[in-house]
Amino acid sequence: MTARSSHIINDSSCNVTVRDDHITYLKKVTDHFKDQDEENHLLLVEKLIYLVLEYVSTSSLKKLGFDITLETSNYLEKMNRKSVDAFNKGNIEEAGKLIISVVDILNQKDISKLYSNEFKLYESKILTYNNLSCIYRKLGKLPLSLKVICFALELEEKLAEENYGASHISIISTYLNKSSILSQMNKHDLALEAVNQALDQMKEVEMNYKLTEGEKVHIQHLRMSAFYNLASELEHLGQPDKAILGYEKAKDYATDLGKQNVIKKIEKAINNIKNVH
User: Fold this and answer.
1) What topology does CATH give the domain 166-277?
2) Fewer CB within 10 Å: N-end or C-end of the chain?
3) Residue 9 confidence (pLDDT) above 70
């Protein structure tokens, strides 16, 4: 007889044993739905992750025979994507439900055991908390939105220091998201500081990294947004001349990128300043 490792879940009402063959069977069922029914597939993957989380507290992942790290990270990425799709369609409640299911998994005490690389777990958390922050902001829960984005930034700064993945570029967007939240909270001095952090990071990236053409274009989009935000904060802080210079720089990048809608928005902002002053 082949020995089977197991884990007992302590509960006052029952004892449940999670065995290798339970997980193996659920994995087979999950794979069956992979290319047929995404909704049921994701539900099954979620159950698989929770089952493995119970199992992993006493047993080795090596016994499973499949890559649970890949299963978990793919699930979290897909759920984030579904949340973003719902958010963009204006279904904020649905977006919130989807992202909370991801947060619940990321908050499980043994989640780090499902990741062979701690930084990969950080990536999942950064993606999730950026999206959660946007949802809180849309709902007007600005202090929560700020708290969540700051948590994401702490993790992303660690990745950027280690030059992990594309964190040296993605962190720029996170600084800009933080700036927008602070601006909405009327904390314009702190918002300006966050924008300057984004601009400083852009300089560092362009000086120290060999960028692809796609990355260069992405940086241009980020710089356009950054100078627009910079100008807006300077305007709020009572520095109209500097604000106009910032808007003009943003307009230059918008022109290069062919963003006519942004150009019109910038021209309107500049005219408003000139009419007031």
Assistant:
1) 1.25.40
2) N
3) no
Give 60-88 pLDDT, tens digit per residue: 777 777 888 889 999 999 999 999 999 99
- Residue 112 tokens read as 């780090």
Contact 25, 52 (CB under 8 A): no
CB of 134 within 8 A of CB of 87? yes
Give the residues across from 7 on adjacent strands: 18
Is 158 in contact with 174 (CB distance < 8 Å)? no
pLDDT in tens, 89-113: 999 999 999 999 999 999 998 999 9
Residue 17 pLDDT grade (very low, low, confident, very high; cuts 50, 70, 90): low
Q: Which two tokens stand for residue 244?
A: 């106009």
pTM for the predicted model, two decimal places: 0.83
Q: Is 106 exposed, middle or buried (0-12, 13-18, 19+ CB in 10 A)?
A: middle
Would you kindly state where each structural domain of the chain is located, as residue ranges? 166-277
